[in-house]
Amino acid sequence: MAGYRAEDDYDYLFKVVLIGDSGVGKSNLLSRYRAITSAYYRGAVGALLVYDVTRHSTFENVERWLRELRDHTDPNIVVMLIGNKSDLRHLVAVSTEDGKSFAEKESLFFMETSALEATNVDNAFAEVLTQIYRIVSKKAMETGEDGGNSAVPSKGEKIDVSKDVSAVKKGGCCST
User: Fold this and answer.
1) What is the pLDDT of residue 36?
2) Residue 174, SS3?
3) Which domain of life does the UniProt lineage start with (predicted)?
4) Residues 98, 161: contact at Cβ < 8 Å?
5) Does 138 have pLDDT greater than 70?
6) Within a 10 A sphere around the Cβ of 103, how many other Cβ atoms?
7) Residue 50 belongs to what H/E stretch?
8) What is the rounded distance in angstroms from the CA atom of residue 8 to the CA atom of residue 74?
9) Which residues touch 56 (CB under 8 Å, ≥6 apart)?
10) Mean pLDDT of 83-104
């Protein structure tokens, strides 16, 4: 079954959420039910791609998650690679350098966080939102220079980042 597309005609469209404890397999259920994948990603202008710095296998899967993200979103989505659980320094299986290197190679932003200690959590979200805002602001200025109406979106309006996020990404991937 293909994913939902705007041009599809449906009598009903229901939103279903998956809830439960961490590690029970919610993500596996979601990834197995491919019909909702594109609807989940639709309209996203930013993403936090998270791996566990204490489990190398989660870092190995980042490439697959990034491919899925890029397959279902605008190619210019702002993506930050997050190495979480940085508080567990004695258990680190993925070095900061490996995370930064992958982020640079893929033109992603990078940050290590600790959700447990609330280290860099706010900073990670703020950085992604700042980069999205810069794109929107740049578009507004470009449109203003051309004598057109403001490109700043009104409340509830969809933000399209399809133009020129690459210039932002080229400025560097990594924030600490």
Assistant:
1) 65
2) strand
3) Eukaryota
4) no
5) yes
6) 23
7) strand 46-52
8) 20
9) 93, 94
10) 97
Cα–Cα distance between 29 and 44 in angstroms, integer?
21
Structure tokens at 158: 């969809």
Residue by residue, DSSP assigns 62-127 as HHHHHHHHHHHS-TT-EEEEEEE-TT-GGG--S-HHHHHHHHHHTT-EEEE-BTTTTBSHHHHHHH
Q: How many residues does the chain have?
A: 176
Q: Which two tokens stand for residue 45?
A: 């202008």
Quick one: pLDDT at residue 25? 72
Say which amino acid occupies 144. G
Residue 172 CB contacts under 8 Å (≥ 6 apart), including other chains: none
Contact 169, 132 (CB under 8 A): no
- Is the whole model's pTM more than 0.70, yes or no? no
pLDDT digits (tens, 9 = 90+) for 148-167: 555 455 656 666 655 544 44
